């Protein structure tokens, strides 16, 4: 009886697979037609539209009734859209490398595996590649929920005219891993990025207090190093473990279970409203009492939700500072326009870094 029931279910699955295949192929042909129509109207047309993809994925998650969760369903549709977009024009993306890092993972989460992702050695190199037009977009980390802001990314915006086109929020899980050469009872050295060590400090103090902690340029570099050593381990993420064939001997060792990192998508084009957006600005104020209040007051008056305020040293003089401010809304929204006008009246300089769809976990 069970075999008969299983046979019927397999026939049903085969039928559904064929329907899914036919529908994906139909969608791909539609994407090709979109490319043809766009190219006829404008030979230099842009195919990737961040606001449109955000709207599609939100709608998918709103209509999802399970049993797959919203994030898993969105991931599947992201890959379908990525593959279809590659038929039109593959997106080329620079990310803070090397391969196997969380930034690469964020790039694939946002653009899908059909995008062409190119690793860069430093954050300013990502900015340069995008500014030069060698790639269409860049992906850089901007803040971690445990360790705070990535100052190199904020400082890069002070010297760049690039715009923020999107954000990715990635849940960060750190794992203790070893290679096939590791003698587990003789581990005396652990490699990882400095931020990963900080995110796992309590766990390391409890489980490996005597092991030397060696900070390297990336978690991927840590994973690579232990391949040639018998007395070392690494702390890194899933992608590094898969790429270098390592075994995880302790999983999710981060001290905070909600440990997340926010990444920014940078590009040359402004992004139209998607219906659920954020805006980022950088504000230079006179060094005088009440400067911060002058910035915050318009947001309070117009009931705009601030999501982040960071201060960085200005390039214009000692003890002068600039403020990086993120808030909900799009710069084309009437209320946001009023706030920006008021800030422009009060600031020495105001620059909108970009309005973009809000990221989700």
Automatic annotation (TrEMBL):
Superkingdom as given in the UniProt entry: Bacteria
Pathway(s) annotated for this protein in UniProt: Amino-acid biosynthesis; L-phenylalanine biosynthesis; phenylpyruvate from prephenate: step 1/1; Metabolic intermediate biosynthesis; prephenate biosynthesis; prephenate from chorismate: step 1/1
Site entry: Essential for prephenate dehydratase activity: 261
Enzymatic reactions: prephenate + H(+) = 3-phenylpyruvate + CO2 + H2O; chorismate = prephenate
Record-annotated Chorismate mutase domain positions: 1-92
Keywords: Amino-acid biosynthesis, Aromatic amino acid biosynthesis, Cytoplasm, Isomerase, Lyase, Multifunctional enzyme, Phenylalanine biosynthesis
GO biological process, one term: chorismate metabolic process
SUPFAM superfamilies: ACT-like, Chorismate mutase II, Periplasmic binding protein-like II
Record-level Gene Ontology MF annotations: chorismate mutase activity; prephenate dehydratase activity
Localization of this protein: Cytoplasm
Domain ACT: 280-357
Pfam family, one: PDT
Any one Gene Ontology cellular component term annotated for this protein: cytoplasm
Described function: Catalyzes the Claisen rearrangement of chorismate to prephenate and the decarboxylation/dehydration of prephenate to phenylpyruvate.
Name under which the protein is recorded: Bifunctional chorismate mutase/prephenate dehydratase
